[in-house]
Amino acid sequence: MKEGRKHILSLGTLLIVVSILGFLIFLLPAVLTGLSEVIPVSAYLRYSGLVSLYGSVITFLFALYQTIKVLVNIYKDKALWERAAGNLRNIRYSAITISCLYLISMPFLYLMAEKDDVPGILFFGLIVFLLTSVAAVFTSVFEKRYSYKN
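^ thats the sequence. predicted structure below, dont judge the formating
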């Protein structure tokens, strides 16, 4: 792989990590506080949303860490198929976990959308679920391809 492409991939991954960490630290607590003021639901609904959002962000960061491991192996020209397949398997499991978290949180998103009359919240949850499902399928295809190369 050419050096310029390697640097662009690394820079893109770094920008994603920094933006997600900024979202996790600064924006997410403010959003959850604002939602609890607008929609006075019981505490277990608020905490289930908190667990779902933080769980999906932490899982996403784990998948990005696996991506960084693949990039480091490419830099060192040690992109072994076994390591790449293992990293892709972890990325696939992360995508499946995020899909399941958003699928479980869909009823809560429906309650928020019904109460606040904002259907975009439900649409956002559906989009995240579908995108992570597609990512899991593509990662599975790449994993199968790497396992056939051995």
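The chain has a mean pLDDT of 79.
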